Inverse folding.
């Protein structure tokens, strides 16, 4: 962490880096906060203002703030199960509820999941149409992070939604990173969100907020979700720091995301060139043309060896190209995720190729 914090050139600042003091120092200027505005109490004030802003941005009737996306999404799927009368949720096995929520959909909410596909890609409309059993809700993670931040095309997304409707199912978007999906899908946020019956969005992923999420959809559904939010322990007395940081992210980072996506595509191409020039035995940048400002890099080395090489590069040169690596499945193959934000915009393709050659020298 010290090496990352001390680097003068990075592609993105890690959310893990700031100290308590640094975070506190950002609060007075968040979203041009009015220091005389009344503090929020159980979701009014600035929290309600954030909810209204999210509903406007997504073109939805209403939105509710949640302390976590995990809670927001479980509540959404639970509410839809009650309304459809079907507790079965169709989703990808690599989606967040299946991998990172401790089985909460079944343990807490009594829901059951089915998988249109097990391949590391978005499902197809045909796979949804041909699922062997009825389901009440189709949940689509946009983008699908674990598969490489992958998005369908706009036409594929429309077909997926239509296939679910033909099965008498509702559609929920896991839009933790929906904010940056407009470039690949070629549509504005209200048109994308308008395909779904409900959408969850995150405030710390992509927007850089402290924490928190929102569930947006019809007013009746969001009203019911607020009741369940209280039951789940999410009706918190005061949340103005999270709400202010979310508003700041919507104001400052949301307009910049298209430029980050464009830079990600430049960096991905330069990485491929750099790896080839460095003579690495095998590499993969996935997807070759990133769908968002995040993508995967795969290399044929043990994860610890790659992480150590990146650390040595950061300490020696002040440049952070890669951070932590993880085993990718096959023996001696590892992957890392790259995120391109404001600091990356100063990097040229030549800078990337030079940094790749330097990184390779530490292997």
């Amino acid at each position: 962490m010290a090496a990352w914090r001390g680097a003068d050139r990075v592609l993105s600042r890690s959310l893990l880096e700031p100290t308590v003091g640094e975070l506190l120092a950002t609060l007075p200027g968040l979203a041009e906060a009015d220091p005389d505005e009344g503090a929020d109490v159980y979701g009014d004030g600035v929290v309600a203002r954030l909810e209204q802003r999210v509903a406007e941005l997504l073109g939805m009737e209403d939105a509710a703030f949640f302390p976590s996306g995990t809670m927001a999404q479980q509540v959404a799927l639970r509410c839809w199960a009650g309304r459809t009368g079907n507790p079965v949720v169709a989703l990808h096995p690599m989606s967040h509820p299946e991998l990172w929520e401790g089985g909460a959909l079944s343990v807490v909410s009594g829901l059951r999941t089915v998988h249109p596909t097990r391949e590391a890609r978005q499902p197809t409309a045909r796979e949804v149409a041909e699922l062997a059993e009825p389901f009440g809700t189709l949940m689509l993670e946009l983008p699908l992070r674990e598969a490489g931040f992958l998005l369908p095309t706009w036409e594929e997304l429309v077909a997926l939604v239509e296939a679910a409707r033909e099965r008498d199912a509702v559609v929920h978007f896991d839009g933790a990173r929906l904010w940056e999906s407009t470039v690949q899908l070629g549509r504005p946020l209200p048109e994308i969100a308008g395909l779904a019956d409900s959408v969850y969005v995150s405030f710390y992923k992509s927007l850089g907020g402290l924490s928190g999420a929102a569930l947006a959809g019809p007013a009746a559904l969001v009203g019911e979700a607020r009741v369940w939010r209280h039951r789940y322990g999410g009706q918190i007395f005061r949340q103005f720091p999270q709400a202010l940081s979310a508003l700041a992210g919507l104001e400052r980072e949301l307009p910049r995301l298209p430029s980050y996506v464009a830079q990600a595509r430049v960096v991905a191409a330069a990485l491929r060139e750099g790896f080839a020039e460095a003579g690495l035995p095998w590499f993969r940048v996935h997807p070759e043309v990133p769908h968002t400002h995040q993508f995967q890099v795969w290399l044929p080395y043990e994860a610890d060896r790659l992480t150590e090489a990146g650390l040595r590069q950061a300490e020696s040169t002040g440049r952070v190209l890669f951070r932590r690596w993880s085993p990718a499945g096959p023996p001696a193959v590892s992957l890392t995720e790259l995120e391109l934000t404001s600091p990356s915009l100063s990097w040229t393709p030549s800078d990337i190729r030079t940094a790749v050659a330097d990184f390779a020298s530490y292997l």
